[in-house]
Amino acid sequence: MKYSCHYTLVWNSGIVKHFIPKCGKDMVECIIMKYREHVDIVKAILEAARTGASKTQIMYKAFLSYTLLVNYLQILQDKGLLKYNKKTLRYKLTKKGDQFIEYYQKIAELLDMDDNNVAINQLFKT
Q1: Under a CB-based contact definition with an 8 Å cutoff, are residues 89 and 75 in contact?
Q2: What's the confidence (pLDDT) of residue 45?
Q3: Which domains, from first to last, does the chain contain?
Protein backbone atom coordinates (compact mmCIF):
# COMPACT_ATOMS: atom_id res chain seq x y z
CA MET A 1 0.00 0.00 0.00
CA LYS A 2 1.33 3.45 -0.88
CA TYR A 3 1.05 6.17 1.73
CA SER A 4 0.71 9.87 1.38
CA CYS A 5 0.43 11.63 4.71
CA HIS A 6 -2.14 14.37 4.70
CA TYR A 7 -4.12 15.29 7.73
CA THR A 8 -7.73 16.07 8.44
CA LEU A 9 -8.11 18.66 11.14
CA VAL A 10 -11.49 18.64 12.85
CA TRP A 11 -12.25 21.99 14.41
CA ASN A 12 -14.52 22.60 17.37
CA SER A 13 -14.86 26.16 18.61
CA GLY A 14 -11.57 27.15 16.96
CA ILE A 15 -9.60 24.33 18.62
CA VAL A 16 -8.21 21.33 16.78
CA LYS A 17 -9.93 18.31 18.29
CA HIS A 18 -8.72 15.54 15.97
CA PHE A 19 -5.56 15.09 13.93
CA ILE A 20 -6.26 12.17 11.60
CA PRO A 21 -3.75 10.94 9.00
CA LYS A 22 -5.44 10.20 5.68
CA CYS A 23 -2.63 7.81 4.72
CA GLY A 24 -4.03 4.88 6.64
CA LYS A 25 -1.23 4.93 9.20
CA ASP A 26 -1.75 5.24 12.90
CA MET A 27 -1.46 8.82 14.18
CA VAL A 28 1.29 7.82 16.60
CA GLU A 29 3.29 6.35 13.71
CA CYS A 30 3.06 9.63 11.79
CA ILE A 31 4.10 11.70 14.79
CA ILE A 32 7.02 9.37 15.59
CA MET A 33 8.39 10.04 12.09
CA LYS A 34 9.58 13.42 13.44
CA TYR A 35 11.93 11.70 15.88
CA ARG A 36 13.91 9.17 13.86
CA GLU A 37 17.53 8.23 14.14
CA HIS A 38 19.91 8.54 11.19
CA VAL A 39 19.90 4.80 10.60
CA ASP A 40 16.09 4.79 10.39
CA ILE A 41 16.15 7.62 7.86
CA VAL A 42 18.78 5.81 5.79
CA LYS A 43 16.65 2.65 5.81
CA ALA A 44 13.56 4.61 4.72
CA ILE A 45 15.46 6.23 1.82
CA LEU A 46 16.96 2.93 0.69
CA GLU A 47 13.60 1.15 0.79
CA ALA A 48 12.01 3.98 -1.20
CA ALA A 49 14.72 3.68 -3.85
CA ARG A 50 14.74 -0.12 -3.94
CA THR A 51 13.14 -0.40 -7.41
CA GLY A 52 14.19 3.06 -8.60
CA ALA A 53 12.68 6.38 -7.61
CA SER A 54 12.98 10.10 -8.27
CA LYS A 55 13.96 12.58 -5.56
CA THR A 56 10.34 13.57 -5.11
CA GLN A 57 9.18 9.98 -4.74
CA ILE A 58 11.87 9.25 -2.17
CA MET A 59 11.11 12.47 -0.31
CA TYR A 60 7.43 11.53 0.09
CA LYS A 61 8.00 7.84 0.82
CA ALA A 62 10.67 8.58 3.43
CA PHE A 63 8.83 11.60 4.90
CA LEU A 64 11.77 13.99 4.54
CA SER A 65 12.21 17.65 3.69
CA TYR A 66 13.93 18.38 0.39
CA THR A 67 17.02 19.85 2.09
CA LEU A 68 17.47 16.85 4.36
CA LEU A 69 16.88 14.44 1.48
CA VAL A 70 19.54 16.04 -0.72
CA ASN A 71 22.11 15.74 2.10
CA TYR A 72 21.31 12.08 2.71
CA LEU A 73 21.28 11.22 -1.00
CA GLN A 74 24.78 12.62 -1.43
CA ILE A 75 26.10 10.69 1.57
CA LEU A 76 24.44 7.44 0.45
CA GLN A 77 25.90 7.81 -3.06
CA ASP A 78 29.36 8.53 -1.64
CA LYS A 79 29.11 5.39 0.51
CA GLY A 80 27.96 3.27 -2.43
CA LEU A 81 24.49 2.46 -1.08
CA LEU A 82 22.63 4.29 -3.88
CA LYS A 83 23.39 5.04 -7.49
CA TYR A 84 21.89 7.76 -9.68
CA ASN A 85 20.97 7.17 -13.30
CA LYS A 86 21.31 10.47 -15.21
CA LYS A 87 19.25 9.18 -18.16
CA THR A 88 16.19 8.20 -16.12
CA LEU A 89 16.79 10.75 -13.31
CA ARG A 90 16.16 8.01 -10.76
CA TYR A 91 17.99 6.66 -7.73
CA LYS A 92 18.37 2.93 -7.35
CA LEU A 93 19.54 0.71 -4.53
CA THR A 94 22.93 -0.95 -4.97
CA LYS A 95 23.90 -4.39 -3.73
CA LYS A 96 25.58 -2.73 -0.75
CA GLY A 97 22.37 -0.80 -0.02
CA ASP A 98 20.37 -4.01 -0.17
CA GLN A 99 22.79 -5.57 2.33
CA PHE A 100 22.26 -2.59 4.64
CA ILE A 101 18.51 -3.21 4.67
CA GLU A 102 19.07 -6.93 5.31
CA TYR A 103 21.36 -6.18 8.26
CA TYR A 104 18.96 -3.59 9.63
CA GLN A 105 16.10 -6.10 9.53
CA LYS A 106 18.23 -8.79 11.21
CA ILE A 107 19.18 -6.43 14.03
CA ALA A 108 15.56 -5.37 14.48
CA GLU A 109 14.55 -9.04 14.56
CA LEU A 110 17.24 -9.87 17.12
CA LEU A 111 16.05 -7.04 19.32
CA ASP A 112 12.44 -8.11 18.79
CA MET A 113 11.53 -4.82 17.13
CA ASP A 114 9.43 -3.91 14.15
CA ASP A 115 9.17 -0.69 12.13
CA ASN A 116 6.62 0.77 14.55
CA ASN A 117 8.66 0.33 17.73
CA VAL A 118 11.13 2.63 19.42
CA ALA A 119 14.52 3.38 17.96
CA ILE A 120 17.41 1.09 18.88
CA ASN A 121 19.16 3.72 20.98
CA GLN A 122 16.14 3.96 23.29
CA LEU A 123 16.65 0.33 24.31
CA PHE A 124 19.91 1.27 26.03
CA LYS A 125 18.58 4.14 28.14
CA THR A 126 18.85 3.54 31.88
Answers
A1: no
A2: 96
A3: 1-35 (no CATH), 36-124 (1.10.10.10)
